[in-house]
Amino acid sequence: MSPAIELRGVEKTFGITSVIRNVNLTVAQGERHALIGPNGAGKSTLFNLISGYMKPSVGSILLRDQVISGLPPFQINRRGLSRSFQVTNVFAKMSVWENLRCAVLWATGHRYAFWKNVDNLPEVRDRTAQILQDINLVSRRDVPAGLLTYAEQRALEIGITIAGGADVILLDEPTAGMSHAETERAVALIRRLTEGRTLLIVEHDMSVVFGLADRISVLVYGQIIASGTPEEIRGNPKVKEAYLGEEVA
């Protein structure tokens, strides 16, 4: 079976500054893969390269053996890859239902028209209702997204990310800023919603990483210095050295 995501010799430079350096990375289909590293390691840049928000200076990025490097984000999304962002990205004045419905409409190729009641489209209505239930926000259906708690907004964003039925999901620090209890609920939600999908996640909370990931890759100064199972990464001396004594387990 071909990998869900594969990076071959990927590099990204800005002027004379090299941010991503000769990255080779493979994420198997159905795998939950975490990308960790110190601040400034290049994790968000790598996400931007994979999802089409930046173009690599060198190298290739493949989605199920098809080259996607250089394609715009919407084309990559249509091929089955969707991502969330480090900063919560929802329509604050629209309700939870309307946010999800927008994502479903986009994914199914429908467009708003003033003469058409989009709630009369059964596939859109049913898909939106299912996601609303999946992210446990049924009771908040008609609440403007801007009035949700931070944790609820992150749950909504995850719902938007999966709305199109993408089977490769990229989540950028989905539990950042959450309390311990909120983090536990978020991890349970992510685990449930990514069942049967491929997940690549950037996360600073090591308890989340080691509790969720099947495999972990460590990015330091734009280079992958180690990839392996949580147990292998936990005992890797290069990883411990890179974190300068920081806890990695």
Automatic annotation (TrEMBL):
Keyword ATP-binding belongs to the record: yes
InterPro entries linked: AAA+_ATPase (IPR003593), ABC_AA/LPS_Transport (IPR051120), ABC_transporter-like_ATP-bd (IPR003439), BCA_ABC_TP_C (IPR032823), P-loop_NTPase (IPR027417)
CDD domains according to UniProt: ABC_Mj1267_LivG_branched
Keyword ATP-binding set for record: yes
Superkingdom in the source lineage: Bacteria
GO molecular function, one term: ATP binding
Residue stretches spanning the membrane: none
Coiled coil: none
Described purpose of this protein according to its UniProt entry: Involved in beta-(1-->2)glucan export. Transmembrane domains (TMD) form a pore in the inner membrane and the ATP-binding domain (NBD) is responsible for energy generation.
Protein name according to UniProt: ABC transporter ATP-binding protein
